[in-house]
């Protein structure tokens, strides 16, 4: 016992934390981040199947983007009717878009309006929205579309 | 029991940083970044809408020769300068129009003057519109690719485009630009694509 004690004392690598509970801490943190990180993609009430294009640009600064969804309603009474959704709400009166966009522009002067339009929509509604954006002076827009064919490797 | 106590005390003095948990910390960080990094960036075709004109204000005049009118009707037929055209033809037509340098009197006088105007019908499918717009943008992309590869502006007296080196494509040049750096290619060879004012009232 005495010699063992001496040996252990001289060994420099002996003592350690108990690492048994470390995974628990890690998992706890992991779960915390999983819960706290907002992956919340707003509940989109309209179907937007984006068109495909080649001449794409990326928008790296997500905070500049404000999305406008245009497409047929997924469910509800008027299912299939083309509707406009900005953030969480469906737009009942198209005239209100200019006010919404104007307010957004006050908060973020470099606002980019990302138009997520279903590929089967008609241009009339797109033109109407664009006219509203012009009224609000929100002139930077982006026709959201996907890359053609399979994604490049 | 006193021996045990003594042993623990001597253990404490020898404490070193445990590395067993390092892997867990690494995993934690990895997972954190995996969660916060957004892989699918928003992609799309960027446009700038024309500013709202005051009622008494006339739209800025564009000489007929510099304007290339692209009309798209409800069934997806395309009319380029009053001629039927296929969507696939638009790219070459745009390039010819833009890179005319005053040669053909019916096409643009110079790339800076050239304007491509896209007009759609109320019932035009959005898909077709994007297809046409994409072709027009791709025409410019191909010209920009050329500039990036050669570092020379197109045209009869094409000078230097002012790039510090040549790139394999416009995209490569674009990708290496810093967030505050000016895009030399687009500054010297801009694209004028205009979305025509929709007809009001039918």
From TrEMBL, chain A:
<dbReference type="GO" id="GO:0022857">
    <property type="term" value="F:transmembrane transporter activity"/>
</dbReference>
<keyword id="KW-0813">Transport</keyword>
<dbReference type="GO" id="GO:0005886">
    <property type="term" value="C:plasma membrane"/>
</dbReference>
<keyword id="KW-1133">Transmembrane helix</keyword>
<feature type="transmembrane region" description="Helical">
    <location>
        <begin position="20"/>
        <end position="39"/>
    </location>
</feature>
<keyword id="KW-1003">Cell membrane</keyword>
<keyword id="KW-0653">Protein transport</keyword>
<keyword id="KW-0812">Transmembrane</keyword>
<dbReference type="InterPro" id="IPR003400">
    <property type="entry name" value="ExbD"/>
</dbReference>
<dbReference type="Pfam" id="PF02472">
    <property type="entry name" value="ExbD"/>
</dbReference>
<keyword id="KW-0472">Membrane</keyword>
<dbReference type="GO" id="GO:0015031">
    <property type="term" value="P:protein transport"/>
</dbReference>
<protein>
    <recommendedName>
        <fullName>Biopolymer transporter ExbD</fullName>
    </recommendedName>
</protein>
<comment type="similarity">
    <text>Belongs to the ExbD/TolR family.</text>
</comment>
Automatic annotation (TrEMBL), chain B:
<protein>
    <recommendedName>
        <fullName>Biopolymer transporter ExbD</fullName>
    </recommendedName>
</protein>
<dbReference type="GO" id="GO:0005886">
    <property type="term" value="C:plasma membrane"/>
</dbReference>
<keyword id="KW-1003">Cell membrane</keyword>
<feature type="transmembrane region" description="Helical">
    <location>
        <begin position="21"/>
        <end position="41"/>
    </location>
</feature>
<comment type="similarity">
    <text>Belongs to the ExbD/TolR family.</text>
</comment>
<dbReference type="InterPro" id="IPR003400">
    <property type="entry name" value="ExbD"/>
</dbReference>
<keyword id="KW-0812">Transmembrane</keyword>
<keyword id="KW-1133">Transmembrane helix</keyword>
<keyword id="KW-0653">Protein transport</keyword>
<keyword id="KW-0472">Membrane</keyword>
<keyword id="KW-0813">Transport</keyword>
<dbReference type="GO" id="GO:0015031">
    <property type="term" value="P:protein transport"/>
</dbReference>
<dbReference type="Pfam" id="PF02472">
    <property type="entry name" value="ExbD"/>
</dbReference>
<dbReference type="GO" id="GO:0022857">
    <property type="term" value="F:transmembrane transporter activity"/>
</dbReference>
């Amino acid at each position: 016992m005495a010699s063992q004690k001496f040996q252990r004392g001289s060994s420099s690598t002996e003592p350690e934390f108990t690492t048994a509970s470390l995974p628990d801490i890690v998992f706890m943190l992991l779960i915390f981040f999983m819960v706290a990180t907002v992956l919340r993609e707003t509940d989109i009430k309209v179907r937007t199947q984006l068109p495909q294009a080649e001449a794409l640009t990326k928008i790296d600064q997500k905070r500049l983007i404000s999305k406008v969804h245009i497409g047929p309603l997924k469910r509800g009474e008027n299912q299939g009717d083309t509707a406009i959704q900005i953030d969480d709400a469906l737009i009942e009166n198209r005239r209100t878009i200019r006010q919404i966009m104007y307010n957004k522009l006050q908060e973020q002067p470099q606002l980019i309006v990302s138009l997520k339009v279903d590929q089967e929509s008609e241009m009339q509604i797109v033109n109407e929205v664009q006219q509203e954006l012009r009224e609000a002076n929100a002139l930077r827009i982006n026709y959201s579309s996907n890359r053609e064919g399979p994604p490049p490797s | 029991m006193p021996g045990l106590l003594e042993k623990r005390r001597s253990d404490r003095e020898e404490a070193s940083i445990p590395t067993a948990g390092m892997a867990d910390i690494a995993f934690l960080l990895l997972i954190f970044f995996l969660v916060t990094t957004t892989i699918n960036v928003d992609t799309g075709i960027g446009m700038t809408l024309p500013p709202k004109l005051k009622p008494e204000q006339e739209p800025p005049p564009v000489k007929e020769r510099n304007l290339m009118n692209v009309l798209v009707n409800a069934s997806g037929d395309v009319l380029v300068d009053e001629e039927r055209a296929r969507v696939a033809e638009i790219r070459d037509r745009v390039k010819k129009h833009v890179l005319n340098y005053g040669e053909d009197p019916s096409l643009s006088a110079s790339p800076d003057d050239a304007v491509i105007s896209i007009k759609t019908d109320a019932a035009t499918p959005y898909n077709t519109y994007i297809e046409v717009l994409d072709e027009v943008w791709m025409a410019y992309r191909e010209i920009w690719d050329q500039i990036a590869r050669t570092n020379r502006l197109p045209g009869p007296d094409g000078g230097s485009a002012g790039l510090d080196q040549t790139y394999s494509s416009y995209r490569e040049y674009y990708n290496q630009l810093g967030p505050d750096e000016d895009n030399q290619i687009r500054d010297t060879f801009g694209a004028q694509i205009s979305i025509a004012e929709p007809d009001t009232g039918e």
